[in-house]
Design goal:
- The chain has one domain: Rossmann fold, CATH 3.40.50.
- Helices cover 52% and strands 9% of the residues.
- By secondary structure, it is mostly helical.
- The radius of gyration is 11 Å and the shape is flat.
- Strand 1, helix 2 and strand 2 form a beta-alpha-beta unit.
Length: 65
């Protein structure tokens, strides 16, 4: 998920909570991205990782293989 504005950041947590509610959270990786996002925020909302941009996100995904 990506956020450009701080107002959209809260929606990311809702998505993670819905994944948990649906029993899907342990089956998928959640990456959040955007200039405002940090690994600390990712951990707070239950995401796996935060990346600053798509290129960094691809590097992270590649390291999981």
């Amino acid at each position: 998920m990506s956020a450009l504005l701080t107002t959209t950041m809260g929606e990311m947590e809702k998505v993670v909570l819905e994944l948990k509610r649906q029993g899907l959270r342990d089956k998928v990786k959640v990456i959040i991205g955007g200039a405002l996002l940090t690994q600390k925020y990712a951990e707070k909302i239950g995401a796996d990782v935060a990346s600053h941009d798509a290129v960094e996100g691809i590097r992270v995904i590649s390291s999981w293989s």
